[in-house]
Every structure is written in C-alpha cells, then in structure tokens.
Design goal:
Radius of gyration: 30 Å
Structural class: alpha/beta
Strand content: 15-25%
Largest sheet: 9 strands, mixed
Amino acid sequence: MIVNINHALTEIAEVVNGSLIQQFPKTELKYLLLDSRKLTFPEQTVFFALHTDELKNKMIVNELYKKGVTNFVINEAVDIKEHLSANFIIVKDTLKALQTLAIYHRQQFNKLPGGLPFPVIGITGSNGKTIVKEWLNQLLENDFNIVRSPKSYNSQIGVPLSILQINSVHNLGIFEAGISQKNEMEILQNIIKPTIGIFTNIGTAHDEGFENTGEKIKEKLKLFPNVSVLIFCSDYTKLSAAIDSLIKEDIKEIKLFSWSKNLPATLRIINIEKISDHSVIKAIYLQKEISIIIPFIDDASIENAITCWCALLQMNVADKIIAERMLGLFSIEMRLALKEGINNCAVINDSYSADINSLSIALDFLAQQQQHPKHTIILSDILQSGKTEKELYTEIASVLQQKKIHRLIAIGPKICEQQEQFSFLKESDFYESVKEFKRAFNTIHFANETILIKGARIFKFEQINKLLEKKIHQTILSVNLNTIVHNLKAYRRLLQPSTKIMAMVKAFSYGSGSFEVASLIQFHKVDYLGVAYADEGVELRRAGITLPVMVMNPDENTFDALVEYNLEPEIFSFSMLYSLEKYLLSSAIDYFPIHIKLDTGMHRLGFDRGDINTLAAHLHNSKRFKVQSVFSHLVASEDANEDGFTMHQANVFLKSCQVFHEILGYDFIKHLANTSGISRHPELQLDMVRLGIGLYGIDHNAVMQAKLKNVSALTTTIAQIREIKAGETVGYSRKAKVTRDSTIATVRIGYADGYPGNLSNGKGKMLLHNILVPVIGNVCMDMTMLDVTGINDVKEGDEVIVFGEELPLQYLAKWSGTIPYEIMTGISQRVKRIYFQE
C-alpha cells in the first residue's frame, strides 16, 4: 500500500515528539513507507522502521538509503556519518509515533467545510467487518466522497495507515477496527474517533486473547464511547446484554439501533425468503413494513446486508433508493475471487484468513459454484480458535461433510494430527507444510473441479494459488470496469440532473477497449457516445450498442456506413455539408441527424463566426438535415491562467448558438465542456458535456483527480535474465555501457506494443517486485531491457508493471515528455485486453 502523506518532516517530528537530525533540508515528502520491499518512490518517501530487532532496523535503513531514501523515523540513533544525506526523526517507539501521527491527522478533519462534524463510521466485530465496510461504500458512494480502510487494514498498524488517507475531498469515513487482546481498542478509538458505530457480530475469532466472550465484547465496545448511534444485532444476546450494561453503567447518551429476527428491535426482520440466486428480506421499521432484495442467499451475506440496511436507515436514505442499491450489491473480490485454473478447474482464492466463521462463509460460496460436480478444499491449520484441537477439527469435519466436500488437501501440523476426523472423505491428503505440498504438486492430479484455497496468512497460500491459477505469460492491459463506473459517477455528481453526458470512446476508448467500455457505460445510461471515425461507430453497432453515436471525422467514403448504421456525423465545413447534402438528396433521405462544430479558438476544425448566418440559413432552408447539437471545443479548460480565454470562447459560442436558434426555429443540444471543463467550469455544463479522459481516471484538476480511480494496468513478464560484466553494452547501437557487473532482465514489450522509444537509456522505469527499475539500452520493437541488479529472487516469468495503480500512468507520460492521452491511445491492438469487475 502506498500511503500519501501531506505533512512536512519538521511537522512530523514535532507531532511525534521526536528529535530531528536534518542533514538534507530540501526533501519533499509525498509517501509513507513501512515495508521496505514495497519501495516505489525513494526520494519522496519517509520510512517508519517498525521492526522490533534493532540490528534488522539498521540493515533496512542501510538498504533503503542505498536505494535513495533519505527520510527515516527510527527508535535508535544511527551513525549519521554513514548517511550524510539523510534525515532522521528519533523516537522512543516508532509504532506509537505512527499512531500519534494518525491521531494528529484525524484531528485535522474533525469538521467538514461547512462546520458540521466529519461523519465517521467505525466498524468492529468478529466477522463481516470488511464486507460491511465495502458494501457501505458501494451503497453510499453516490452520496459521499468516501475514505475507507483498504482491504482489511484494521490492526494497530492498519488503522493508522487507513486514517492517513483522509484528505479534504472526503466527507465520510468508514473504518474497521480489529483487536486480538486487551487494551488495544482504546488506541484505535483515539485514532478513528467514530461518530457512528457498527458492531457486526460476535464469534470465536481471537478468543484466546481474552478470558471469555464477555471480556472480548467489552474490549471491542471501547471503540464507541463517543458515537451518536450504535448499530448491532440483538440476536447476539451476550452482545446485547453488554451494550445495555454499558449504557446503564456509564450513563451514555448513545442511540441504539438494533435489528433482530427474534426479538423486538429498531428493525424487526419478519421474513427471509431465498429464491434461486437472491434473497427477499422483509422487516418492520417505524411501524411500517419495508423490504429489500439482495443478490445473495448465504446467511453471512444476508446478515451483513441487514447491518448495512440499518446504517442506511439511520442515515435517512430513502427506502426506494435503498432497495435499488441493495439489489446491485456485488461480492468483494479481496475475500472470495473465482478465477480460471489449470486443467479446466475453477479456483476460489480465499488465502486471507482462516477461522470457523470465515470458513463457513467460503464453503457457502463454494457450494453455489456449479461449474463442476467435484468440490475440493485446500485448508490450513485454523489458528486462535479458542477450542481444543480435537473439538476444532471435529467441528470442521462436520461442516465439510455437511457441505458435501469431495476432497480435502490439508496443510499444517495441527490438522495433520487430526486426520482421523476426516475419514469420511473418499479423497484426502495431508501435508505438514506448503513446502511439502509444493514438492508433491506434480504428482497431485487436479482437473475439472472447483478448488477452494482457504488458509491463514502465516501459511502463505498465495504460493498455492499461483500453482493452480491458469498462467498467461504475455503483455496484458487489464481494464477495471468498476472503476470506469466509479469515475462516471464522480463526474455525474458535478452535473445538474438535466445535463446530458456524451462519453468519448474514440481511439479504441483511449486504448482501453471499444464495445466493452461502450456497453458498460450504455448500461449506466449515458446519453451519447463520441467516436473519431465511422468504422469505430460501425464496430459499436455490430456489437449491439444502441446509443446515439456522434462521428467526429466523417468523410465522403463513409456516408453509406453513416446511414446504414444510424451514425450521426459532425459537420465542420461547407464542403462537407454540401457533399453530405448531395448524398442525402440522391438517397431520398430527409432530416438526417448532424452535429455542427464551431471554431471558437482552437483553430483545428469548425465553422468560423463569420459563417454562422449563412450556415444557419442554409440549414433552415434544407429539409435534408436535423441539427442534433451545436458544439465547440475548449482550448485550455484545465489551465487557470487561461480562464479568461475559456470564458471568451464560451461567450462566442453562446452568441453563435443564439443566432442558430433564432434562424433554425427549433431547439438543439448545446455542448462545450470537456473533462476539465466539467470539473473546473460548472457554469459551462449547458445541455450536455463530453466526458473523455476523466472516464479513464485522469483529470488535470487535482481536487477531481483525488476522486477518481485508476482504470487500467499494463503488465508484461520477464522473458530472460542474464548476467553481464562491467564494461559490456546492452541493446542496439551500444548506447548503454554498464560500469559494474549487472543483472539484465528482458521483458516482453517494445515500441510496437506502444511503449515509447524515447524511454530508452534510463528515462523509463518499470515496477518489479514493488521496486522501480530503469530501462537500460534502447527500447526495441518487441522487447525492452531492464537493469534489475541487486533485486532478490528475480526469475523469468515474473510480472513487471509498466503502469497501473502502483505506478501511475502520469509518471510514464512525464518521463516520456508527453501526455497520458498519447500513452493510452498508443497501446497496440496486439496487446491483449482483459476486462474485470470486482
């Protein structure tokens, strides 16, 4: 995780009460790093040394210093003579320093700009925290700019990292907090400071850290001393009793919002009906019957959905909106992801956690998969269950039998000792470790089955997942369709309800794909699509796209296609107008839809101001055309220094439209604002806006950029690794000469794939094992060489990130001396696209 940090080094030192040894005063901090293996931008990073071993910390500091890191927070003095260009903040406890920094950061956001309290939902419980958090985000993202815990960052380290994400664009926080022993929650409460509390449930996870369930509940409730409302399920009787006792003992003024299937409650569940792939849930709220439908039938999802329902009701979201959004909930991939596996297998990777409750959830999910009749589970030891080994694995065996599991592959010393509990299975294999399993892998037959991988993190089951997932060793552009929808919604929030959206999908949707993107945004009800050439529009029509499509660069050779496929051309010159009119006359076509382009300052295409009266009169007198829209293009809407010229363009455009309207005698759509125009010039929305690069996650407006999500990732793999001696050269023309013995990795991407040739010889960088590595030598047509000297465990076939979430496209464009548009649209068609939804 890359954590952005908005505090200067001197400010951090003061906040954490540390001693600052500053030897390199010009440092500009942007990122906070805890894991040295995930270093990305060394010059702008401050590293918190959290390792408990002082020697190990010194080794890490030395390693990072050599890689360019110059800012450190450490708990012991170092020999500054060895790090003459570094800055150090010396503290007694680096973890406490991190938490103190997070507390300080949270205090900066106690109020919203209007003076109202900054709303923060704090979530704890034994299970469901992450799902509830992610679902609340899904349900509320149309109404709020939400900051939330990434994945399951709910620990003493994870919570501070989560809180440090808050910035000025956010107006709602959703954070989860987990504890495994006493006296932990007070710290997390002080960091999160929730205003709304959610207690999901109480189960057996982390039982061993507490004397009993009652003590665990009491400790978890310490997250909520200052919340205005606490949401919980009163069917968990011990939890309900503890909350009642807490309220009475401390005389707390906390509103309780309970739900129950069996008892009187704020939300009383009266019926749950599971039908095929969805569940209908009915309840009584405020003496009125209400209901929702969710696309899940497992008990855990139903419970989590009801918890979210309570939160939305408490926040006064309308019943109709709740019902619509609940129906659109989708499962969270970070927990349960179904992927294509080897030998026609399907693989569910849940190597996330391993306890009784989450195992039950995963098995429910497995039971719903009907691709294969055979179901296999690869299971690790279950840790920290609070039960004896015999009790634990007897219960697990019973669950597996109930879920009709065909095959068990068990890994871990504890589960191996309990083999007899699984004697009912026809197929079972037991291995002491992942290493032992991997040694035997080639002798284990996997084919035509659905495999659930369920393991505690300590077992590192991701190694098993890599063995079982189907491999694709090539250059791939992965496109996240969910983030396109997110970005579309982010811009929609800026528009008036009546303002239409034309989504630009020209140039193969800025390199991201054509009908795949178009079909998605058609589903999400944009009003128009814009393409550059007629053949792009033809492809969309053949793929089933029915939205109106404007073609920006038509020519005489495409008139037949325009008519046949119901495409609407942009008309930017009299010669184009007369040619199309002649064609329509010969084809006996009347009132063909067109779009008139005006030149208000771009001086690229369009009618001049002096042409307006003649053009409008001609269109009025001809029955061949129906003007759908009149538009122009802003020259510098992203540049505050050019706002005067932008308004000049707008004035010219609006005056021209007035002339058109008076002469034509009918209404038409007026559109002027592009992506930057939407975010920076709300007064120029007019009847429609044209959303282009912003849909794909890029906006020049920093405030808007913070609201967008990365859409695509370009990855490749290492084809070969070689060692070369100092003095040898790499690549064409011998442009790169190494001055040391070096390790060179050749990756499967070149300028024919769209990787710019001017990124040769160190200008470009790629991300390997979370480390930036430079291009060495000239970029070739199909290959590029990287200097990976000093990076451990590099092997052929390893994935390399060209750009993506961890290495933003903007960096690539900057290194190349160009703009993101050029990089995106330059990605070759031979690069395979993969589209996924979370």
